[in-house]
Amino acid sequence: MAARRELTDFERGMVVGARRMGHSISDIIREFNIPRSTVSRVCREYLISGTTSHHGQCSGRPPALNDRDQRRLRRVVSVHRQATLRQITAEINVGRTWDVSDRTVRRNLSSLGYASRRPTRVPLLTARHRLQRLSWAREHIGWSLNEWKTVAWSDESRFQLVRADGRVRVWRRPHEAMDPSCQQGTVQAGGGSIMVWAVFTWHGLGPLVQLNRSLTGNGYLQLLGDHLQPFMDFTKGTDTTEDVEALLL
Question: Among residues of the chain, what percentage have pLDDT more than 90?
Fold first, then answer.
């Protein structure tokens, strides 16, 4: 069976205009070569809606979530990043005359660009930490490449021997990976761990030193004397004539 051809708005207007001028449905069928059912349907829709434009009347039932619902859905997800799909659906259904399903909400989230992803793992920084890092970056924004070549970067870090539970997920769009509400702060705890210290410069990697205990002030100075200073002396033997200056972060 051939698919029904939908009339253009212009053709619908001609049909309605002819009917209002007193032409019979049979006359319109012969004049425009349009099936009787189509002429009857166009005239009936005009009487109901008062317009000759079909506005997608043959596209099926209206969407479960209209534009207003989708704006609300976007707000809910933006506020509750770690909510489950079921929790989001329950929130959307509050105050509605009929409920939508989890599947409908997931489909609408996808159309808005959201997907359930693991939160981006970043160091757990306080507001003070962020301001300090920003201030440091601004102080050194004008440094040249040669100046950066004189820097030795060192730090210590603790590594877990057993990974933490990574089942937390957030709803976000592709460009929101670094949004604070889409991140999960990481802390070093549980499952056993080791602490190491390392250093590197433009000229190469320095030693990786395992630390058996937390560093005190004197212990840190001894670490620098035992490992950083020899490494700095070694870098002086490269093709640069500049000394390497330790910049401890």
Answer: 27
Q: Is the pTM of this model over 0.85?
A: no
CB-based contact 85:117 (threshold 8 Å): no
Percentages of the chain per state (helix, strand, coil), in multiples of 5: 45, 20, 40
Contacts of residue 78, defined as CB under 8 A and 6 or more positions apart, other chains included, come to 181
Per-residue confidence (pLDDT) for residue 1, from 0 to 100? 42
Distance CA 81, CA 74 (A): 10
Among residues 168, 78, 153, the alpha carbon closest in space to that of 114 is found at 78
Residue 236 near residue 150 (C-beta atoms within 8 A): no
**244 has pLDDT over 50:** no
Amino acid at 45: E
Q: Are strands 170-172 and 115-117 parallel, antiparallel or unpaired?
A: antiparallel
CATH number for region 121-238? 3.30.420.10
Q: Is the dihedral of CA 74, 79, 81, 82 positive or negative?
A: negative
Question: Is residue 65's pLDDT more than 80?
Answer: yes
- Measured CA to CA in angstroms, residue 12 lies from 36, 52, 113, 158, 189 at distances of 13, 6, 37, 74, 71
Quickly count: other Cβ atoms within 10 Å of residue 64's Cβ: 17
Taking the domains of the chain in order of start, what are their residue ranges? 9-49, 67-113, 121-238
